[in-house]
Amino acid sequence: MDIVVCVKQVMDADTPPSGFRIDARANDVVSTSGLPPVINGFDEQAVEAALRLKEAHGGTITVLTLGKDLALDVIRKPLSMGADELVVVWDAAFEGGDSYSTAHGLAAAIRKIGTYDLILCGRQASDGDAGQVGPGIAELLGMPCVTFAKSITATDATVRIERAIPDRYEVVEAPMPCVITVSNELGAARYPTLRGVMAARRKQPVTWNAEALGIDPSTVGAAGARTKVLRLFLPERGGECELVAGDTPEQAGKRLAMKLREAKVI
Fold it and tell me: What DSSP line would sit under 122-182, residue for residue?
């Protein structure tokens, strides 16, 4: 089984607000903490799903990423987890893309890879949370797509997916090749081993640019975007505090209970 896993480099979702600022003119987030980027958490779970399928059926795992300012030590992490190859589409033309233009670039790279049974993506990226790239790739490649997978099993020609929905899951079958987006219900991704980290450092990624993919630069990145961010901002937060007093702790507790009841908290 040959699997392509699409991953994205993002700012660490646990970065506190003090660790970044909003560039209002560019409508972009700028890191001020010096913290290194990370692989999107949902994409790591997609790598984990691919590794489980490889352990069950054999085959290869090719990890695909796209961007401009990519940290090689970061995007090599899937190799240290057990993936076989890393393909990096590295070109300034892809900067500032939206879900559509990103999917367009990834779909072109997948066509160039050529051999695949499954394409796995994370359910969404932690920076934009749109969840549209995986379905966009499927649409552009003309193949089925199943989203929010919590479990994937495969036979010779089909995959069986347990798809997470609110309060339950549904079972879906799809023919291969197809696109599947993986949800956090799959479980935590494995940690890289020391041997895997050392092997990943020795392995050189395959690098392509827009020209190598035969892509018109006007169709990718900001130039090919179909959406526009009008405003990016941190929401203002505020609150009020009311101290409830009493002559005794019992009286204060009773008054507090009455306040909570008036507010319909209890």
Answer: ES--TTT----HHHHHHHHHT--EEEEEEEEEE-SSEEEEEEEETTEEEEEEEESSEEEEE
Looking at the whole model, is its pTM more than 0.90? no
Set out the domains of the chain in order of their start, with CATH numbers: 2-224 (3.40.50.620), 236-266 (no CATH)
User: Is the CA virtual torsion 120, 123, 125, 131 positive or negative?
Assistant: positive
- For 205-215, b/e burial (b = at least 16 CB within 10 A) is beebebeebeb
Report the C-alpha gap between 61 and 104 in whole angstroms: 21
Two tokens, residue 133 = 């790239």
pLDDT < 50: residue spans in the chain: none
